[in-house]
Amino acid sequence: MEFSILIQQLEKELKKPLPGVQIQLRMSSISRFRELMDFSHQSDAIRSSVLILLFPAGTNGDVSLVLILRPMYDGVHSGQIALPGGRFESSDGDLLNTALREAREEIGIDPGKVRIIGHLTELYIPPSNYLVAPFIGFVPDEPSFIPDLQEVEEIIVIRLRDLIEERSMKIKEFVVSSGLKVTAPCYDVDGHLIWGATAMILSEFMEIVKRGSGI
Fold first, then answer.
1. Domains of the chain
2. Given CA atoms 15, 19, 21, 27 in this order, what sign does their dihedral have?
3. What is the pLDDT of residues 66-110, one digit of tens each?
4. Who contacts 45 (Cβ-Cβ below 8 Å, separation ≥6)?
5. What pTM did the predictor assign?
């Protein structure tokens, strides 16, 4: 699909009611589903945001988005694939600025070149007590990414046409930070396993893409 046409369709669809939590839960493990049924800790959740950045990539201008591989560290999201983003800071002013600031810090994106076209449903992440606001934006040309080597192990570019394929959805076993094994749905694209909160956010996003394109 032509990049500019997809952006127009997404802008239109994002003005409509969002698919919401039900669609996010398609990519949730059973244990995560149970945790999300308990909203008792959301009142003190840490506010944060992420950016789904769209751009044309490669010689064919394939509609793509960028993900990052977190390095191994002593934390609940160690070694996981994520969207650029992080926790809100008072100097940000709002959560959109948080997403843009984090994208600049983590992958070298100039916030002034990003056009925001909408947002998705907020997602609560029980293990880290984060409440995440996902924003969707685009740049007209493929960026030259500059990773922050302390926060980003690898930059991963994913084509939407690969993500939307039914065969990309798998069920795999993962080991979480506590050492426990969790069976969860994931996206398997080019050998990259995208699961947890990132997969849940992308599930809602891809539902909007399908709704707009009629796939």
1. 3-165+195-206 (3.90.79.10)
2. negative
3. 999 998 766 555 678 999 999 999 999 999 999 999 999 999 999
4. 124, 129, 130, 131
5. 0.92
